[in-house]
Write a structure and sequence with these properties.
The protein is an alpha/beta fold and about 200 residues long. It is about 35% helix and about 25% strand. The chain has a single domain, classed as Alpha-Beta Complex (Maf protein), CATH 3.90.950.10. Strands 1, 2, 3, 4, 5, 6 and 7 form a seven-stranded mixed beta sheet that branches.
Amino acid sequence: MTTSPQPPLILASASPRRVALLAQLSITPDEIIPADIDETPDKGELPIPYAKRMAESKARHIAMQHPGAFVIGGDTVVACGRRILPKAETEAEARACMALLMGRSHRVIGGMALACPDGRLIIRHTLSHVQMRRLDSAEMEAYIAQGDWEGKAGGYAIQGAAARFIKQIRGSYSQIMGLDLYLTAQLLRGAGYDSR
């Protein structure tokens, strides 16, 4: 008795961190296709709805081009209160983000969407809390000079140079990095994807 081949798995993201995280689940995507979508928050949009909308939009965008595949869309949002912090592109943005985050606790929201071969779209989110200690001006300038903040939500990556500033996390470390591995494994398993 022959079994039909498993539908392909596509990661709708260019993030090398998400590829590395999937590898921890012994999953190698069949294709990596970044979703080219507008990531501008809507006026007044709150962090959790935004994270879910971005994940859904990425998964839906790629699934429309590749029907019959599993498509993972993810988004990581760093939020300070009701404010969605940008992916820092300039030193000024990185400095502004870090100034908001240091000495307090902030939220990291992971949006996750799984488009299934049968047309279903499953959307979830996870929430973690990160406490960052206060930096003195020399530490701030040394961190900015390293450039590890570039393209990172909130101007830092928990697994990067900013790790030394993190006092405490409550939640999922992998989700803060970019993809909640527990949630990902559960969604794929529930949708019938065999990751053995």
